[in-house]
Amino acid sequence: MTSFPPKIPPVSVLPYAFAIFLSAFLLFQVEPIIARYILPWFGGTPAVWTTCMLFFQVFLLGGYGYAHLLASHLSPRHQALVHLGLVVCSLVFLPITPDDVWKPDVTQDPMLAIILLLMVTIGVPFLLISASGPLLQHWFNRVHPTVAPYRLFALSNLGSLLGLVSYPFFIEPQLGLRMQTLFWSAGYGLYAVMCTWGALPLFRFPLRSESSENPEYRKDKKARLPESFLILSLAACGSVVLLATTNQICRDIAVIPFLWVLPLGLYLISFILCFDHPRWYDRRIWVPVLLVLLSAVVYLLHQEYAETEVIVYIQIFIYSAVLFACCMVCHGELVRLRPPARFLTSFYLMVALGGALGGVFVNLVAPVLFKGYWEFHFGLVATMMLLAICLFRTRDPLRSPRILWSERVFLVGGIATLAGFLAMHIQEEQASTILTTRNFYGVLRVKETDRGTESASRFLYHGRINHGRQFLTPRRHLYPTAYYGPFSGISLAINRHPRQLGLNTLEDRKGQGGLRVGNIGLGVGTTAVYSRPGDIYRFYEINPDVDRMAREYFTYLKNAQGAQQVVLGDGRISLERELGNKHRQQFDILAVDAFSGDGIPVHLLTREAFALYWEHLRPDGILALHITNLHFDFSPVVRALARESGKQALWIKDMADHGKGNSYSDWVLVTNNQAFLDDFFVNIRIVPWRSLEEIIWTDDYSNLFQVVAP
Question: Which CATH number goes with the domain that contains 679?
């Protein structure tokens, strides 16, 4: 392993090592801090993180480009003056706490809104610290021209990894969101001091730009065009697999910082290992490992449509393992192509460009090309194809020339087999689908099954989760289905509410007004089937495509007897704005129906969210929370928040009845309405809690792993 020569005093290395480490720590610490801060503003969707990652990758590219320009065109002294001057000016952007004025409204494109918010909040500081890795390595190479600086890149990635890992385990649990931004801002001030220390030796250099490298390096040549294209492709492929895997994990499990940090951390570990020493990437080990893990992930994908459900931790392990193997292959081959140290900044610029192109592909190109999250499939196949190209370029891809052709045939066959199985998964996903749309909030599919039979039905799927069903035959057309059947918790809340029982005639409804029912989450509008003349049902829906599909492909809203309104935008933000405008809704019932999917909007299950709900409910109102979920049991959180609010929580379970189109459902009804609590028909439907554990979540901290279902 290469080390610093003894003749270099440790104190001369320290400022570069510390500044590079700190800048990398801050660079990757700010990513989950800011993304976590704004996640509730944009509905808690996985696209919030991938959009943030697109911004980070593009600005990382900008930082590397800036470092390359300084290194290529300015003398060391001028490089130091320019960079330190900009760092001092950037202090005016501190602290980096996002202002509430950036909360989105329904007219804004969410991706554009996030990028603008990030540019104004952290754009300049982020660009400058992103330049620190290559720029300070270049400065180190100028001060110590005979020492290869590439191990400082491994140190940089170590800092990045610690910045990421420390967030979900130390920073998020201990500090509120505002304190997190202040903590980061203080760290940025320290970075300015360390950067100044590292720049001091550069002022000994002459003003004119000239190379101080060892003359033996001058004969080195840049990478040829094919090698440059391969470097770019490998970097882009690693980025695609990272973002696509993060999307896949969050889509199948939950959108939480830990599941952002884990994939990005593995991505960085692969960089650390591959750039530390060539021994960490041995083709004889990693090629077979990759093939085995690809088989496992193909199995996992096909289990989406099987009767069995794979345990959460196994899903996380398989996705994480295949991501790490793909990144080790991409980055291991990348290191094999790295140029001599004098081309360091241009090499890093090419790597950053590849990462940014991967982000652009996942965020901007894939939603146009693919109807589903198929960039994950694309990334796996692309990794195998790039591996094959790298192996074909060498005489002995794995062991010796004698088995070269058998290895090539094996690789080509493996790529074809992988592509075939992934194509089968896409075909399964599209079976019986009559319409597919994809936007910032995910993939929606309208499917029809059992055509020509009494059970003919139309479904709305978000990913692989059923968000509503309607029978197509006239006799059953308005039957309440899925999680909203006649014995569900929401049916009980509506039909047994004392005000409902007291409105016996149409004249009563005209005189007193009907029920006011709020719903966070529209689905296909099934609960509107319970409306009666004079009722007002107000739905809050963040995804405009859901509203369009509910009206064009389903008829619950159109055939509702009462008035129905759909408010587009995140439900919590909409309720906050209504409250800010002195417009309390005075709901008799407020249903929060956003937890049955894979991406959990935890900001709807916090202390602050509950306080908001009760501002909009009548004193005798009922808060109905639909907590049915394959992976998580939210009852400890709901029960704790109900007790803290001084209310009683009732768990209502409804068993599946597939013949009637009803799914298994868990609803928790929270209220202090004594007449409702004493109702005989309510009491016979209550089931005992699984446990009496209570967990309080707040806007500052929530942990989904606390509520993983046993």
Answer: 3.40.50.150
Same domain, 535 and 629: yes
At a CB cut-off of 8 Å and minimum separation 6, what does 347 contact? Answer: 223, 231, 338, 339
**Number of separate domains in the chain:** 3
In a shared domain, residues 266 and 305: yes
Q: Is 466 helix (H, G, I), strand (E, B) or coil?
A: strand
Work out the burial of residue 674: count CB atoms within 10 Å of its CB; fewer than 13 is exposed, 13-18 middle, 19 or more buried.
Answer: exposed
- Which pLDDT score is estimated for 514? 85
* Euclidean distance between the first and the last CA atom of the chain, given in angstroms as a whole number: 46
**Chain segment 4-52, per-residue pLDDT in tens:** 444 444 556 788 888 889 999 999 899 889 998 998 888 777 788 889 9
* 310 and 426 share one domain: yes
Let me know if residue 387 belongs to a domain: yes
Both 555 and 634 in one domain: the answer is yes
Look up the CATH number of the domain holding residue 319.
1.20.1250
The answer to whether 337 and 227 are in contact (CB under 8 A) is yes
Specify which of 65-69, 223-227, 313-317, 645-649 reaches the highest per-range mean pLDDT: 645-649
- Residue 482: CB partners within 8 Å, gap ≥ 6? 466, 467, 468, 469, 523, 526, 661, 662, 663, 665
> Per residue in 554-599, pLDDT tens?
999 999 999 999 999 999 999 999 999 999 999 999 999 988 765 6
Whether 348 is covered by a domain: the verdict is yes
Domain that holds residue 1: 1-210
CA distances in angstroms from 95 to 34, 62, 158, 216, listed in the order given: 12, 22, 25, 47
Within-domain flag for 469: no
Q: What angle separates helix 132-143 from helix 110-130, to the nearest 10 degrees?
A: 10
pLDDT for the residue 519 = 97
pLDDT at 328: 95
- Rounded CA-CA distance 279/276 in Å is 9
Structural tokens at position 565 = 């309104």
Using DSSP's 3-state secondary structure scheme, residue 73 falls into helix
* 629: its two tokens: 């979920």
Q: For the full predicted model, state whether its pTM sits above 0.85.
A: no
Based on the fold, state whether residues 423 and 491 are members of the same structural domain: no
Residue 82 resides in a domain: yes
